[in-house]
Design brief:
The chain is α+β, with helices and mostly antiparallel strands. It is 33% helix and 23% strand. Strands 1-2-3-4-5 form a 5-stranded mixed beta sheet. It is globular.
Length: 140
């Protein structure tokens, strides 16, 4: 798809991002609120990447780097523009960010039930590591 631009999100984008995730993302997260997304942007102003097509929000990805590993979250593309290069543009930007920061390997959080996403990540060269299991604990 031509005309895809990728930029970092700012604080003013938070309401639109949250509305977009409700429409385009698979599932919700405990951090899907203004405070959670605001903290992300305040801590790392380049982590939340937005793809726009003709000025409209078309996709997101969180490209977080903790100094050790590169983590990808919330890759979401608007249903009406899927399979047109939006995810590719987002992942190109995320992987370039990681390379510039010295990252060596990226991992992606992908829901087990999201078969469409499995195909997309696989096409990009990512593979499932079935020997690992994610352990989580909500914090008060």
């Amino acid at each position: 798809m031509t005309g895809v631009t990728v930029r970092a999100a700012g604080a003013a984008d938070v309401p639109a991002v949250l509305a977009f995730w409700r429409r385009a993302a698979e599932g919700t997260s405990i951090s899907d609120d203004p405070a959670g997304v605001g903290r992300l942007i305040a801590r790392d102003a380049e982590a939340l990447l937005l793809a726009e097509v003709d000025g409209a929000l078309a996709g997101t990805v969180i490209a977080g780097f903790d100094g050790w590993r590169c983590h990808l979250y919330r890759l979401a593309v608007a249903p009406e523009v899927r399979r047109r290069g939006v995810a590719t543009a987002l992942l190109d930007a995320a992987e370039a960010r990681f390379a510039a920061l010295g990252g060596r390997r990226a991992d992606a959080m992908v829901l087990r039930r999201n078969e469409v996403a499995h195909h997309a990540w696989g096409a990009r060269g990512y593979r499932a590591e079935e020997e690992w299991r994610r352990w989580v604990k909500p914090l008060a």
